[in-house]
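Re: that chain you flagged

S.,

Sorry for the slow reply, it's been a week of failed gels. I finally had a moment to sit down with the sequence you sent. For the record, here it is as I used it:
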Amino acid sequence: MKTMTITIDRKPLTITFDGQEMQVEELSIRLPFGRKPADITDIAATGDYVVYVTETREMETEEFDSFAKNLSKSRDWLKGKGGYFMLGRLCVEVHAPGRPYLFIDPSGGDYPRYVARLG
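Prediction finished late last night. Pasting the structure tokens below so you have them in one place:
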């Protein structure tokens, strides 16, 4: 299996969101996001958003594949995260060896409401 390696510049920032300071990493590229995709093949992305990574979740390939096949499923680890900030989205970065990177903005929910794919 071919290993996917993506290198993107990241700029650490402290932002204030909903009255709370938080540490994020702003990606050097902008990405389009799909709204409420059922699975990874259903990401019909539009727009051009700044991506602010609030945390990274690394998965094993089997866990990632299961996650990517059912993006509408509730996930406790997404609950209350994400949101729209300035010209971008606050995202949880999800990746696994040999798989695309996903940037998830649950916009306060507990499932991937907005998803960008890289790779």
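What I noticed first: Strands lie at 10-17, 20-35, 46-58, 83-85, 88-95, 101-105, 114-118.

Talk soon,
D.
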